[in-house]
Amino acid sequence: MENIIILDDMSYVRYRVKEVLEEKDIKVYEASTSFEFFNKLSEKKDNIDLIILEIGLIREDGIEVIEKIKEKNIDIPVMILTKMNTRESFAKAVKNGASDYVLKPFDNRTLLDRILKLIKTNETKKTTTNDLVNEKNELKKQNTSKEVEEEESTQIENSSNLPEDFMYYFMEQLAIAQENDGYLSAIIFTLIKNTNEKEKIDVKQSYLILTDIVYKGIKDIFKDPCLLVKHGFMTFLGVMPSYRDIDLVKLKEKINEKYDVLSTIHSKLSDYHIEMSFVSYPQDGEDSQELMDDLINSMKYKIENNKNSKEEKQ
User: Basic and acidic residues: which segments have biased composition (predicted)?
Assistant: First the structure.
């Protein structure tokens, strides 16, 4: 049986959703406040397949709720079911990881179809993740060694596996830029090891720690409406609405300056340097796929150049 938790301060909405889903043998947990919601989520989170959330709560800020879900690294898809029919609320919800955005009043059949689709997608994701974990554990047992940078290059092999929250927000902001003859830029940057020393898979926890240090140190540069997300072990992606070439130059300087500061605090970071690539609308393309392909290919080229350069020095 699938399990869903819904946060909505209107009891009749919770009743309607529960009535629709229980016909499909889906268990629904109800919450009318964020306090009640997080208590139930903490208790049931290992069994929850989907979160349904109203961001237009009467006495609370629903956007803050979805932000807390993201901060807590809760890996459960979130559907926004709301009366808030504004571009701003949609953008904020997607930016914070919402998988779907449904407006009230809703059609029962349409809502059910979209809920079932999200649950199925999440089940597929869990299966894939478990397979990857099992594969990595098996590699550990065999003491197989592999360069982290080679694996990072695989992580950004193409634009089809980029984080959903990044792609949703980029496409939303691209539509806004196209509609208003505006500008939009995206960045990808990754940490590159300064030597050609091989790294074993079983020490990758240290890379996750370094990534978290860099993310927390640099994310303040990406203030709203910008977005920064982590991707893979050592890579970051950003969306910068209204950014032009001069803004990108300043952003690059700020990132390098902040990284230098972080390196003095965390000496392990001095073993790496940052490589960055940018794309901008409209000068680099007008189609989202074209722009993302250019962004990924540019970073792959830089990673390969770094690898060749280190090999030549050996």
Answer: 134-147
